[in-house]
Design brief:
Chain lengths: 201, 615
C-alpha cells in the first residue's frame, strides 16, 4: 500500500495522522471508524466523560475556528475534519445509534432502513402501544406510557452490553429493532404530551 | 470533497492578516446595534460621548447623498419619514414572496421593482435600497465608532445573528459586512455569544439556559459551559414574539381610536414609554388614563406564557430536566420586564442572571470570540443547526437529512432512488422545517438531476449531500452513482426563510404533530399503493404469461380498485384495496419467485405500523 502524502508539502503522512509531521498542515479526515477517530476502544460500553474529553480535545485542534488565519484549502480540510468528528461523536454518544453502528461494523444483518419490523411478536407489542397512546387523553396518561417505554428502552440498552460482549448477532438484531420502535414511540408520546400540555391552562 | 473547496466561504485572507488591525464584536440588532472590543480577555463596549453603547439601527438618507446612522437618524424621522429606515434586519435575505401577507404591517415601503427570486428592496431617501446596503451603512457607522475610539483601523469582526437565522439571512449579513469593508471572522448565534460573555467574563461553568427576548424576537438556547468549551445542546425560539408585541398588547387594552397609521405609531410609542416606566413604577399615565403594573401584566400574560412553553419544549428536546440547569442568563431589553423575570424563575426554579447588561451582553460575547479567533486562544464554540433540513420525496413527504440541533459543521449524505422504471430525471427540492409534508416547510432550493441512466424503479442510487459550515451556511450537492456516470449538481440556496415563519415552524410542528401524522399516513398509504401497482405492472410485462385469463382478469380488477381509491382521502379504503391486490398477487409472486425473481415485499416499516392497525 502506498504511503499517503501531505497535500501541502508532499512529505509522507502516517495513516491516521490529522497533521503533517513535516509542515503541520491539517490532513483530510480519511476512512477511520468512529471509535478509532476518537481514540476509543471498539465496544458497546463507552465512558461518556472520556468521549466528551476526547471530542473536545480533538475539536480544539481541528475546528475551523482554529484555522481562521489559514488559507482556504486548510480551512476547508478542517471543516471536513470537524464534520467527521461531529458524526463520530454523535454516533457514539447516543446508545441506539452506537448500537446500530457497532452492529454494522460486526456485519449484523439489519434491515436496510433499520426500522422495519419483521418480528411478529414485536409488531404486536408495537401496535398495542400505539393503540394505548391513541386512547390516552391526559398528560398523565401519556406520561405514564412514555415513562414505561423509556424504562423498557433503558433495560434494552443495558441488555445490549451483554449481547455485544457475547457477539450474539440474532439477539443484537432483535434488540436494535425493538429500540428503534421504542425510540420512535417515545418521540411520538413526547409530541403528544407537549401538545396536550400547552393546550391546557 | 471538492464541493467544500468550491463553496469555501469567503475571500482569501491576506497573508499575515492576523497581524493587521484589531477585530471587534458587533451585535447587529433589529432595534439597536452595539460594537465592542476585547483585549487580553477584557471586553469593553465602545460608547458615544454621552456614554451610550446602543446605536439605534436606524438610517437617514439625505438628498445630497448624506447618510446618518443612529440617534441622529431617529430624530429626523418626524420631519422626513420617507428618508428614514428602521428594523431592516427583518428583511435580510428575504424575497418578495416572503413578504406577501406581512408587508402591510412593515415600517417600510417595499420597492415594486424587486427582482423575481431576489432579495426585496425598500424605497427610502428617493431610491430603492437593498437590506444588505442599508445594513452595510449601519456596520460602517459601527466601524467608524470603533476606529474613532481605538485610534486605528478596524477591518475584521465577529458579527452575531439570531440562532434561527437561515442560510440566506446569514449570507446577506456576511455580504453587508463585506460592503462595509469588514472581513467576517465568524457569524455567531446571539444566545451563544451571550453564553460566551458569561463563560469567559464571569467564569461561569455548567449547564446554562440563555433566555433572549429582544424587540421582535425570542431565542432560547441550552449550553454546556466547561473549561473554555461552549457546547450548544439545543436551541429554539419564536420570531414573532418580543417587546414590540408587549407594546401592542398594552395599546390594545386601552381600545383607543386607531384609525390611521399615524395614530397607531403614536399610541405604540406611548405604550412603549409606559411599559418602560412600569419596570419600576406601580402605575403610569398613558393617554389620559392610569395604567397599573397589574393591567400591563395581564395584557402581556399570554405572550410571556408562550416563551415559557418554548423553554419547556427546548428542555424536553435536549432531554434535560430544569433541575439540571445551573443558571439562566437574561439577554435583550425585554427581559427588564419584571413579569418576564418571574416567569423565567418559575420555569427554571431559580433566579435568572443579568450581571452583564442584557442590551450589551451579545456584543461583549462577540468581542471575546473575535479576540479568541485572532489571538489563537483555546476557546471552542460548538453550535447546532436551529431547524431540520430535508428533501421532498414521493407524495410531498419530507425526508429529514439533518435534524435540528445537530452539531455543525456537518456533512450528511443520503441515498434516494427512482420511483418508476426508466426514470431519467429527478427533481430535488430542499426544504427547512419540522413538519412532515413539504408544503408546510420552507422551500430553500429546487433543482433537477438529469441524465439518470434508464434502470428499473428503485435501482438508481442518487446521493444527496448536505453540508452546513460552522457559520451555519448550507451547501447541497447530488449525484447518481450506480453506473459510474457521476453527475453532480450543486446548489446554494438563494434567499430564504421569513424569520417569523422559521420560528413558527418548529412550534407548529409540535402543535400539528398528530394532524401531520394522519396526513403523512394517508400520503404513505397512497405511495405504497402506487408502488404496488407499479411493481405489478412491471411484473405483468415481464412475466404476464404465468397467469391464465381468469387470474389476469381478477388482478386487473383489483388493480383498478386501488387506483380508484388512491385519489380519495380514505386511508383505510386505500389500504384495503392495496391489501386485496397484494393478496391476489401472492400466487403470481410465488410463481415469479420460482422463476428466480426475488420478492421485495417483506416486512412492515415502523412508520407504517399504524396503517395496518385499522384505527
Amino acid at each position: 500500500m502506498q504511503t499517503p502524502m501531505c497535500w501541502s508539502c508532499g512529505a509522507p503522512v502516517e495513516a491516521a495522522a490529522s497533521f503533517c509531521a513535516a509542515c503541520q498542515a491539517v490532513q483530510p479526515p480519511g476512512q477511520l471508524d468512529h471509535f478509532a477517530r476518537l481514540g476509543l476502544g471498539r465496544g458497546y460500553t463507552v465512558d461518556l466523560a472520556a468521549l466528551d474529553r476526547a471530542y473536545f480535545a480533538l475539536q480544539r485542534r481541528l475546528h475551523p475556528d482554529r484555522f481562521v488565519r489559514k488559507q482556504p484549502r486548510e480551512r476547508a480540510i478542517s471543516q471536513q475534519q470537524a464534520a467527521a468528528l461531529n458524526e463520530a461523536y454523535e454516533t457514539l454518544k447516543h446508545p441506539i445509534r452506537r448500537a446500530r453502528y457497532l452492529a454494522e461494523l460486526m456485519d449484523v444483518d439489519l434491515p436496510g432502513d433499520g426500522r422495519t419490523i419483521d418480528d411478529p411478536q414485536l409488531l404486536m407489542e408495537a401496535m398495542e402501544a400505539r393503540e394505548a397512546l391513541a386512547e390516552a387523553g391526559t398528560v398523565a396518561e401519556v406520561q405514564a406510557l412514555e415513562r414505561r417505554s423509556r424504562d423498557e428502552s433503558d433495560a434494552a440498552i443495558a441488555a445490549l452490553r451483554e449481547l455485544f460482549t457475547r457477539a450474539d448477532q440474532a439477539g443484537i438484531r432483535r434488540a436494535i429493532l425493538r429500540l428503534a420502535y421504542l425510540d420512535k414511540f417515545v418521540e411520538e408520546a413526547r409530541a403528544r404530551r407537549l401538545n396536550l400540555g400547552s393546550a391546557g391552562p | 470533497m471538492t464541493l467544500l473547496d468550491i463553496h469555501e466561504p469567503g475571500q482569501t485572507p491576506l497573508p499575515h492578516a492576523g497581524e493587521r488591525g484589531l477585530a471587534v464584536g458587533i451585535d447587529l440588532g433589529t432595534t439597536n446595534s452595539v460594537v465592542a472590543i476585547a483585549r487580553e480577555s477584557v471586553a469593553e463596549v465602545l460608547r458615544d460621548e454621552h456614554g451610550d453603547g446602543l446605536v439605534p439601527s436606524v438610517v437617514f438618507y439625505g438628498d445630497d447623498g448624506q447618510v446618518i446612522v443612529g440617534k441622529d437618524a431617529q430624530t429626523r424621522f418626524a420631519d422626513n419619514p420617507d428618508a428614514v429606515v428602521s428594523s431592516i434586519k427583518r428583511l435580510m435575505g428575504r424575497g418578495a414572496a416572503d413578504l406577501s401577507g406581512v408587508s402591510g404591517k412593515l415600517p417600510y415601503t417595499i420597492d415594486p421593482a424587486t427582482a423575481e427570486g431576489g432579495m426585496v428592496k425598500v424605497r427610502v431617501g428617493g431610491r430603492a435600497r437593498s437590506p444588505v446596503e442599508i445594513s452595510a451603512d449601519i456596520l460602517r457607522a459601527l466601524k467608524a465608532r470603533a476606529e474613532a475610539a481605538l485610534g486605528q483601523t478596524v477591518e475584521r469582526a465577529v458579527i452575531t445573528v439570531p440562532a434561527y437565522f437561515d442560510d440566506a439571512a446569514r449570507t446577506a449579513t456576511r455580504d453587508a459586512a463585506r460592503v462595509a469593508g469588514l472581513e467576517v471572522l465568524r457569524l455567531v448565534n446571539e444566545p451563544t455569544a451571550a453564553a460566551l460573555a458569561y463563560g469567559l467574563d464571569k467564569g461561569v461553568e455548567g449547564l446554562y439556559a440563555i433566555y433572549d427576548l429582544g424587540g421582535g424576537t425570542f431565542d432560547l438556547s441550552l449550553l454546556r459551559l466547561e473549561k473554555g468549551v461552549f457546547q450548544v445542546l439545543a436551541t429554539g425560539g419564536d420570531a414573532a414574539l418580543g417587546g414590540d408585541d408587549f407594546d401592542r398588547a398594552l395599546a390594545e387594552r386601552l381600545s383607543v381610536d386607531l384609525d390611521s397609521p399615524g395614530a397607531v405609531r403614536r399610541v405604540l410609542l406611548a405604550a412603549r414609554a409606559a411599559k418602560e416606566k412600569l419596570t419600576s413604577a406601580d402605575s403610569v399615565e398613558l393617554l389620559t388614563r392610569t395604567v397599573s403594573r397589574e393591567d400591563f401584566e395581564a395584557a402581556i400574560a399570554p405572550l410571556v406564557k408562550r416563551t415559557a412553553d418554548i423553554c419547556v419544549r427546548v428542555l424536553s428536546d435536549a432531554g434535560i430536566g430544569d433541575e439540571a440547569v445551573r443558571g439562566v442568563v437574561l439577554v435583550g431589553g425585554s427581559t427588564r420586564v419584571p413579569a418576564v423575570r418571574r416567569a423565567v424563575e418559575r420555569v427554571f426554579g431559580k433566579a435568572p442572571l443579568s450581571d452583564i447588561d442584557p442590551d450589551e451582553v451579545v456584543a461583549v460575547g462577540a468581542a471575546l470570540q473575535a479576540e479568541a479567533l485572532t489571538s489563537g486562544s483555546d476557546t471552542l464554540l460548538l453550535d447546532v443547526t436551529p431547524l431540520s433540513l430535508g428533501i421532498e420525496t414521493m407524495g410531498g413527504i419530507v425526508e429529514k437529512v439533518i435534524p435540528r440541533n445537530t452539531p455543525i459543521p456537518v456533512t450528511v449524505g443520503q441515498e434516494f432512488t427512482t420511483y418508476q422504471d426508466g426514470q431519467s430525471a429527478m427533481a430535488i427540492h430542499v426544504v427547512q422545517g419540522e413538519r412532515e409534508l413539504a408544503p408546510d416547510c420552507r422551500s430553500l432550493a429546487r433543482f433537477e438531476l438529469r441524465g439518470i441512466p434508464p434502470m428499473t424503479a428503485g435501482a438508481a442510487r442518487i446521493r444527496v449531500t448536505f453540508s452546513v459550515d460552522a457559520d451555519g451556511l448550507l451547501t447541497v450537492a447530488a449525484e447518481e452513482k450506480t453506473t459510474g456516470v457521476v453527475q453532480r449538481v450543486e446548489v446554494k440556496p438563494t434567499y430564504g426563510l421569513d424569520e417569523d415563519e422559521l420560528a413558527d415552524m418548529i412550534y407548529d410542528s409540535l402543535e400539528h404533530a398528530e394532524d401531520d401524522m394522519r396526513r403523512r399516513l394517508l400520503q404513505e398509504a397512497r405511495v405504497e399503493a402506487q408502488r404496488l401497482v407499479h411493481a405489478i405492472d412491471a411484473a405483468l410485462v415481464s412475466d404476464g404469461d404465468l397467469l391464465d385469463g381468469a387470474e389476469r382478469g381478477a388482478l386487473d380488477q383489483a388493480r383498478g380498485r386501488v387506483l380508484a381509491n388512491v385519489s380519495g382521502e380514505d386511508r383505510e379504503a386505500i389500504n384495503a384495496a392495496a391489501q386485496a391486490l397484494e393478496e391476489l398477487s401472492k400466487s403470481f409472486a410465488e410463481r415469479r419467485m420460482d422463476r428466480g425473481i426475488r420478492d421485495a415485499l417483506a416486512g412492515v416499516s415502523v412508520d407504517r405500523l399504524e396503517s395496518r392497525m385499522g384505527n
